[in-house]
Amino acid sequence: MPTENIYILGIESSCDDTAASVIHNGTILSNVIASQKIHEEYGGVVPELASRAHQQNIVPVVNQAIKKANIDKEQLHAIAFTRGPGLMGSLLVGTSFAKSLALGLDIPLIDVNHMQAHILAHFINEEGFKKPPFPFLAMTISGGHTQIVKVSNYFEMEIIGETIDDAVGEAYDKSGKILGLGYPAGPEIDKRAQLGNPKAFKFTKPKVNGLNFSFSGLKTAILYFIQRESKTNPNFINENINDICASIQYTIIGILIDKIKLASNQTGIKHIAIGGGVSANSGIRQALKTGETKFGWTTYLPKFEFTTDNAAMIAIVGYLKYLESNFSDQNVTASARLKI
Ligand code: KG4
Ligand code: ZN
Fold first, then answer.
1. Cα(54)–Cα(283) distance, integer angstroms
2. DSSP type of residue 135
3. Is residue 273 pLDDT above 90, yes or no?
4. Residues 102, 98: Cα–Cα separation, whole Å
5. CA-86 nearest atom, ligand 1
6. Ligand 2: centre distance to CA 309 (Å)
7. How close is the Cα of 168 to the center of ligand 1, in Å?
8. CB contact at 8 A, 113 and 154
9. 7-123+307-323, superfamily in CATH?
10. Ligand 2 centroid vs 45 CA: distance in angstroms?
């Protein structure tokens, strides 16, 4: 098995992005994503439509990734793919495609856990980005997950806190729906939050013991608040949209920072990384940076293109597993609820 000059193809299809990436050793050569616009008009991902779109996109996306990397597919050493967690129909497309391609090229197949990949994206070689030393704490914040993970080594991870209901990205998206914003609403709320007053409206933080999170109460509180205010002023949302967004963002960031602070105090670990779609958020990035001077943390913020779902993060895990000869066999199946 060669260990130098390794080319790995990563394939991601867990939700509504069809993505492929080629990595050479630890450096990304291509990172192609076809995002599915179709879900916007439904205000959320429609699983049936997502799997169909993956089926349409996967061949062109993989071809483009190989072409952009300027290699021939025969140069690939292994195929890495997202096994789970995610939507079963979506995962099946990537899994079946990866298995066939590995079989056709007669090279190893490597299954990847999507949530591990959001964390291990920090190990992609990128100028200006430092890699976290072990052990570190990773907060994975996305549309499907909210977890605090103690990372002792590449594949030695322990979830020490997670949401008991909605994920933080869901809190953003559901709040956006109440406000009449498009899907996904996270980026728009973030943009507007930067123009508003974070203390204009007060939403109470949920009381959840330990390192777990809860976001469903916040969504309900926002709904009742908007209904109440709109009764006396039908134009309330329009007139206050930036302040409302800033206040929602302030509350969410407060919840996240409180828990990561507690996790850091409990474990004594001061290296803190974030990953997942919500790690693109300007508020959480700023709050973590402030924590560097306030709490003595060293923080690790991913490059924007590696925050939301992408295949570069799948390719880096593929590379790390390749170095350990950690391969899957052709019997491997997609797993919608795969755990870290
Ligand atoms: O990781 P991701 O692409 O997909 C999942 O695995 O869920 O995350 C998507 C989530 C969506 O809920 C989206 O609203 C949120 O990430 N998001 C943001 C921002 N950019 C994306 N939330 C807050 N602020 C942002 N800037
Ligand atoms: Zn994700």
1. 32
2. S
3. yes
4. 6
5. 6
6. 5
7. 9
8. no
9. ATPase, nucleotide binding domain (3.30.420.40)
10. 13
Question: Strands (DSSP E) along the chain, which ranges?
Answer: 7-12, 17-24, 27-35, 78-84, 109-113, 136-141, 146-153, 156-162, 271-275, 298-300
Q: Which atom of ligand 1 sits closest to the CA of residue 309?
A: 3
Q: What single-letter amino acid sits at 3? A: T
Closest CA to ligand 1's atom 3: 308
Q: Which residues line ligand 1 (CB under 6 A)?
A: 15, 142-144, 169, 172-173, 184-187, 190, 276-278, 280-281, 308-309
Across the range 48-77, mean pLDDT stands at 95
> What span, in angstroms and rounded, lies between the C-alpha atoms of 171 and 223?
12
- Which residue is listed with tokens 């916040």? 218
Domain map (residue ranges) of the chain:
7-123+307-323, 136-301
- Rounded distance between C-alpha atoms, residue 36 and residue 243, angstroms: 30
Question: Alpha-carbon distance 53 to 46, whole Å?
Answer: 11
C-alpha torsion angle, residues 121, 124, 127, 131 (rounded to 10): 70
Length of the chain: 340
CATH superfamily of 136-301: ATPase, nucleotide binding domain (3.30.420.40)
Question: Is it the case that residue 37 has pLDDT exceeding 90?
Answer: no
Q: For residues 8 and 20, what is the distance between their CA atoms, to the nearest angstrom? A: 10
Helix 168-178 and helix 216-232: axis angle, to 10°? 20
pLDDT band at 3 (very low <50, low <70, confident <90, very high): confident
Q: How far apart are the CA of 309 and the centre of ligand 1, in A?
A: 9
- Closest-CA residue, ligand 1 atom 13, reads 186
